[in-house]
What does this fold into?
Amino acid sequence: MGLHAGVLAVRSMILAKAKAWLSHPLIRGLDLDDPYTIEQRRQLIQSKPSLRAIYGEWYGAISRALPVGDDPVLEVGSGPGFLGEFIPGLITSEILACRGVHIALDATRLPFSARALRAIVMTNVLHHLPQPRRFFADAARCVRPGGAVVMIEPWVSTWSSFVYARLHHEPFKPDAEGWEFPATGPLSGANEALAWILFARDRVQFEDEFPEWQIESIRPGMPFRYLLSGGVSLRSLVPQLSDGLWRRFEQIIQPWMTQWAMFAEIKLVRRG
It folds into this structure.
């Protein structure tokens, strides 16, 4: 083995041991496609005040972005979340039947009549849909004119490319030629770069294929706090008392989010 190969092997070993140590005990060793993992993640979010606050921040942004009206709102991939505390009457769903979710469904074959929904919302879900074209086509059928799809998704930046490629378990392929990816499992299959591919890199193509959808806004942000909270798989990396300092720091560097953002709030509006 050459020197360079040896260095790479040592680095890989160190990263693997670090990931194993950082894995949260509630999640360590669990199958991502097992409904029990969703239950454990629900418990994990509730046990980490900083992470629960981040989800609350995301949910507040989603609820404020919704169009007015009384038609129902569907959440795709509700999983361990609590968005229902922010949106009265929210229909929660998951691809697997699990406790606390109203309905199990496939996001590419939504069981709703035409124009029945005011909006579809999701948090860290789009990048798990192996056939996004089918989702956006069926969403256009179900969402009324003036309705919306609102989501929080991983985003591609210089910083996030480093983090997602080295420190996260899900595939991250911003250079993927196509939008689809293998459906290895209902929750384990992914491309964390999918939202950036659809709405930034291939935006013109998306708009050509789906003229029903107007990309109204993309707001990149959250470069550090989610990572430092450990998310839904790792231990917290900093004490909760530091949350305010990190929030303030993220506000200061907001003008440079194209280089630093790890997530983005994205809103699409259904044209009439």
Notes: Residues 225 and 246 are 7 Å apart (CA to CA).
